[in-house]
Amino acid sequence: MSAPSVPSAPSGRVVALLVTHDGTRWLPGVLDGIAEQGAALSGVVAVDTGSTDGSRDLLPGGYDLVEATSSASYPDAVRLGLERVAALAPDTEWVWLLHDDSRPAPGALAALLAAAARRPDVDVLGPKLREWPSLRRLLELGVTLSGTGRRETGLERGEYDQGQHDEEREVLAVNSAGMLVRRRVLEELGGFDPRLPMFGNDLDLGWRAAAAGHATLVVPDAVVFHAEAAHRGLRRTALTGRHTHYQERRAALYTLLVNSSAAALPWRVLRLTLGTLVRMVGFLLVRSVGEALDDLAALVAVVLRPGQVRAGRRERRDRAAAGGPDRERVKRLLPPPWLPYRHGLDFVGDVVSAVTQQASDVAERRRVAAAELDPSSQAATRLRAERERDEDDDLADSGAIARFFTNPVALTMTLVVAVMVVAARTALGQVSGGALAPAPDGAGAWWSLHLASWHELGFGTDVPAPPYVLPLALLGTVLGPTGAVSLLLVGSAPFALWGAWRFLRVAGRLVSPRGAPRWILVGGATAYAVAPVAAGAWGHGRLGLVVAGALLPWLAHAALGFAEPEPDRRRRAGWRVGLLLALTTAFAPTTWLVAAVLVLVVLGAGLLLARGLVSARDVWLPPLTAILVPLVLLGPWWVPALSTGSGAALLLDAGRPPSDGVGALDLLAGRLGDLGAPTWAGLALVVLAVLALLPRATRIPVTLCWLVVLVSATVGAVLGTVDLTLTATDTPAGLGGPMLAAQAGLVVAVVLGAQGATRAGLAGPLRAAGMVAAAAAVVVPLTGIAWWLTGDDDLTSADASVVPAYMVQRSTTGPEHGVLVVDGSVATGLTYTVRRGDGVTVGEDEVLAPSDVDPADAATVRDFLSRPTGDVVDRLGGLGIEYVLLTAPVDGTVAAALDATSGLVQAGSDAGTRAWEVDRPLDPDAVAGDDSGSRVVLRAVLLAVQGIGVVLVLVLAAPTLRARRRP
Known about the structure:
Elements: E1 14-20, H1 27-35, E2 43-49, H2 55-58, E3 64-68, H3 74-88, E4 94-99, E5 102-104, H4 108-118, E6 122-131, E7 138-140, E8 144-145, E9 151-152, E10 169-170, E11 180-182, H5 183-188, H6 201-211, E12 215-226, H7 244-259, H8 265-285, H9 289-303, H10 306-319, H11 327-333, H12 339-356, H13 358-373, H14 378-393, H15 401-405, H16 408-423, H17 443-451, H18 469-479, H19 481-511, H20 518-529, H21 531-535, H22 543-559, H23 567-587, H24 591-609, H25 611-614, H26 617-633, H27 635-643, H28 664-669, H29 679-691, H30 699-720, E13 723-725, E14 730-732, H31 736-760, H32 765-790, H33 805-811, E15 818-825, E16 829-835, H34 845-848, H35 855-866, H36 870-878, E17 881-886, H37 892-899, E18 904-907, E19 914-918, H38 934-957
Parallel strand pairs: 1-2, 1-4, 2-3, 6-12, 15-17
Antiparallel strand pairs: 4-11, 5-12, 6-7, 6-11, 8-9, 10-12, 13-14, 15-16, 17-19, 18-19
Helix pairs in contact: 6-7, 7-9, 7-10, 8-9, 13-14, 13-19, 16-19, 16-20, 16-32, 17-18, 18-19, 19-20, 19-22, 19-31, 20-31, 20-32, 22-23, 22-31, 23-26, 23-38, 24-26, 24-30, 24-31, 29-31, 29-32, 30-31, 31-32, 35-36
């Protein structure tokens, strides 16, 4: 290495200021780069901050060396270097800052000086930074800072230099590696901020320079190669620490707060606080837990130390020009306010894309492996042809209008979705009826129902809210309760269609690299999507079963990850399946029983038939993890249900009880009530699934589908023998979960069997049977859609309440203004309900149904209806009952007795009904629960565990995705 021909002491126009610290890995190249600058450089001042690797010994003798301790920060080193320059060469006009890991290209300094000569108004210039050692990737051409603290370069990650950014332009700041700055300006600005010891000081200096009226120019003709040793963690010091991301984020937050105007400061703090929480969620989604914690720690370090921010702002105010900071120049150089949101949308798109491609990777790797194993080129040629066909025919990729209208699959699926939306038009707007209660007025009702350990419903109850209330509350917060319920009822079938299509396509490719024909996929996906409708769940208002039906194909899609060859992918599949199973179980509780039994059966069979394969921990643990995850995430539901003696809630289908009785034949036919499609349509699917066992090519996977069907039917048969005793009625256990699982297994069996028949080239009677099966496969989904379009349902937008409007308004003013609604007659039996607030809304039926009424409260109502007296009326007022309503037809005996009872005043009512007002003091704490005690503590603990569990499972279930950081 030759030493640069520079004077022994700096003098002249330009002096390079080189800061070194343990840089022997890069320093020889940097010194060569300095020597290549020639006569453009007048001298070099090197500041070494306590190097212990021999960096000082590499410095040429012609350099003026300043030694500092290892605790000296970069601003300290620059300050020491400037003092040496001022002492030895006071006529120096320019200072060229270099790091010991930044190698300037030949002519870099000359290009910077040429630009300075063309633009005498410019005081700070910076080169084009390219990655070292790759030499071609761009790092920076000027830099700015977004309102969320993101370092913006305007470059794509890993972008190569092809001359696409080679125009000189004014920027907010340039990197200190290669920065050419007038010495006078650097001294007037006070140098770099000592509170930014390592990172972010270039942005802060550029911001202060712009505010002081100085222009900063990026000169692409000047090139410097930068290794970014500190940023990439290649070199750790006491100043960088182990948490580089923390230091960078803290510097960005500090820079924003100290340089913002006083009026914008509160908004900055609020935005950075909320933005940090959002960024943490993003980092957790890609399993960058360390960076998420670094973000939080950086926010705390800046916000909880306001003295540093105040001191920095005071120094900037003292150095400000007489006219104040040039905020217009700064504003012009800052990125647009919408840029962080665009980055957020890009990130969400990356996550969604990675999630949706997880299971498809299994089939794709299988297809590639099959092509590689084939010694001929035919397999590879077929693979390329199929990929081209996928690009042309895939519904998800047919974005161009011309391709869309020439793609029969896309047109058919679009038509099916349109018909589904038309058929579901009844559910638009406020809807109730059948098993579906009206939606509450606001999402806050759902949040209160989920969070509270005591509910002021009926006479008060500690039965926990059903688990689906939490996702409804989240969705209702965005769309409103009415919009949330409508979206779920209208959008569940199209969402199920999409999920079934994706699952069946991947399942077909697992069986054969060519996959199933697309007309078979369309028929199978449609048949499954209308299964909840054909079962009668949609028409009867069984919201939970409708949503669970939409989630089930996505759950099965995630379960394909158990076949991944890599253990890490299988583990993540376990968490992903567990998360989806928890969500499905929240809407259809018995689904968990089916999944648990199925996992145990499959693992047990595997231990018997292939013990060496299944006994590995990374094989059996992911399915068991998937089964255990719902127990943690749904703990706030099942733990209190068991502890309060309301375990019957664990076996109820969502909605108003009672559930419809379902026999074995109805279970296989997929019918849950009188509003279901004809039995023959469901049995036709069973026949087709039996015929699917004939093709030898797909017999094994079809048999596995039948295993799912048989397990589901067995669980359903066992549950069918269980009768649940509730407060007001008896009901069989909910069989929605087993029914949906059985229908899913039958549909997949038919699709795989049809795929096998088309590939096997059947002849004779089997070919005829295949043609009949194909025709039936078209008829079954068409029958379901036709039934949906023409069939009856219990859903209505009309107010079905018989309670007069004035009573409804009164009941919303407080829980003590309850209405006792009495139905029936003495001859047939009297039943009653207590209305409070908005009445029973979605999510509250499952709380009231298993609630045990206090014997004393039940005796009060019984005495009131059988032998009403003034004393009984007093007790009724103590229960928070203000009105009594007899519905039509009114029992004359009961009405006459109430007319003669003291303490009751006749009240207005609709035709055919009778009403009375309780003229007694009402107890405002009649249904209030105890806010202290073990119940409240248990609820708080379970909710905390649930919240932490959801975050952890989301992190562990997220696909592999590299977090986007600045280039």
